[in-house]
Amino acid sequence: MSNLDRYLIQPSKYDYRLFCRTAAFLASCFLLSGCMCPLKSPPDPGVKFYQSLDSVQCTGGGKTVAQIERDVRAAGITVYQTSCGVDGAIYPSVCGAPDGRLAVLEIPLDQARAASALGLKPLFTLPYGAETPCR
Questions:
Q1: Residue 108: its pLDDT value, please?
Q2: What is the pLDDT of residues 3-18, one digit of tens each?
Q3: Helix, strand, coil shares of the chain as percentages rounded to 5?
Q4: Averaged pLDDT of the chain
Q5: Which of 32, 60, 64, 65 has the fewest CB atoms within 10 Å of its CB?
Q6: Within a domain: 115
Q7: Which PROSITE patterns does the UniProt entry name for this protein (predicted)?
Q8: How far apart are the C-alpha atoms of 93 and 86, rounded to whole Å?
Q9: Do the Cβ atoms of 50 and 118 come closer than 8 Å?
Q10: pTM flag (> 0.85)
Q11: What backbone torsions phi and psi does residue 111 show, to the nearest 5 degrees?
Q12: In the chain, how long is the greatest CA-to-CA distance?
């Protein structure tokens, strides 16, 4: 019996290790692939609009986020989520000057026209506008 015949009949330790590693790799790929089940229904996309709180430095004042949300809901517009924000503009540190605080409201896309009629503007129109934690 030649060396080649012996190799073909009896697998070596290397072949067994290679088989185990390949099987482990394929099993881990299968297990890590996750469930490919579709979701029941994706949530409706909302559009973020903003309105200035009209507050000023040192004294505050203006409206609150809750008041603006109440006004928007009274107009029949659904509000998914509210948060605070800033317009990103730089203001001089002077009492009585605007502070750039905003109310940010997420509303359904199909009610965007009604929100614009109320004076709300899309958040993406502010180049440096951002949401911030309410204080």
A1: 92
A2: 555 555 565 666 777 7
A3: 35, 20, 40
A4: 83
A5: 32
A6: yes
A7: PROKAR_LIPOPROTEIN
A8: 16
A9: no
A10: no
A11: -105, 15
A12: 100
Among the residues of 34-133, which ranges form H helices? Answer: 65-74, 112-117
Structural domain of 111: 46-132
Residues 73 and 117 in one domain: yes
Tokens 């009610």 found at: 111
Question: What is the C-alpha to C-alpha distance for residues 53 and 83, in angstroms, rounded to an integer?
Answer: 12
Counting every residue written for the chain, the total comes to: 135
Helices (H), 75-135: 112-117
37 domain residue, yes or no: no
Domain membership of residue 61 (yes or no) is yes
How many domains are there within the chain? 2
The dihedral built from the CA positions of residue 111, 113, 117 and 121, taken in this order, carries a sign that is: positive
The span from the CA of 86 to the CA of 88, in Å, is 6
CA–CA separation, 99 and 55 (whole Å)? 6
